[in-house]
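Intended use. Records like the one below are meant for learning the mapping from a protein sequence to its folded structure. Do not use them to infer anything beyond what is encoded.
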Amino acid sequence: MRIGLITSDPGHPLLAATAALLTPEHHVKTLDPESVTGNTGPGADVYLLKARTPRALALARDLERRGSPVVNSAAATTLCQDRTEMAARARRAGLPFADTRTFATLARFAREPRLSGPVVVKSRHSRKHDLVARVDNDTQLGKLAAAHPQEPVVVQEFVANSGWDHKLWAIGDRLFAALRRSELAPEGRGPTVPLALDDLPPGWPALVRRAGEVFALDVYGVDIIDTGGGAPLIVDVNAFPGVRGQAGAPEALAALALSRTRAGTP
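Structure written out for the chain above:
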């Protein structure tokens, strides 16, 4: 089988380990979406879309038009880049997703009436080094707006929680979990701590699976906070996250790639 990796970073730990598992019997080819021009050569039986830049998404759409399976699809990946559309899709499906308001610019939000409590401000469009900040008062909001006046944003009410994000990942039929101190915590983001699936509150694995169905994703992450007593609140859904340091993740991705080849796609 021929497996294509759409990425500018083939040395990423998950991709490199997956490629090492596949290459004894299969051909693995890397396509850097930022440098590909014209004909990409013989098509692969399946492509893994790790990059999420505009050029990567355009390349994935072109491959799909030519009949190649892409994991995740360009449409599903694009949806997860827009936090407004993400929240709307999740809430329509009945997922416990954070209530989300959208503003054309951060400066526009700063002109709203005084804050009644802490909020979380995020870039509307998810990307590397995007804006994610907790704002507790109007002074903080004014400073943030002065630094990013034209940034399109979404705003979510800050919900009291333990200060730790539950990072849950799915690769095909495999689930992985970890705890990571929230980047909004006073101490800042901390290390990722392994978490056994059996230690998750009841119903959370099924919730992650449901999120994958709603967003039509095969490789994805769901960020959940515990709002008390195991009550989950989803704050983000990510297409093809890194899933670093999770035993069995490369094996799961290799198995998924082979199961999604052109011959095996319904």
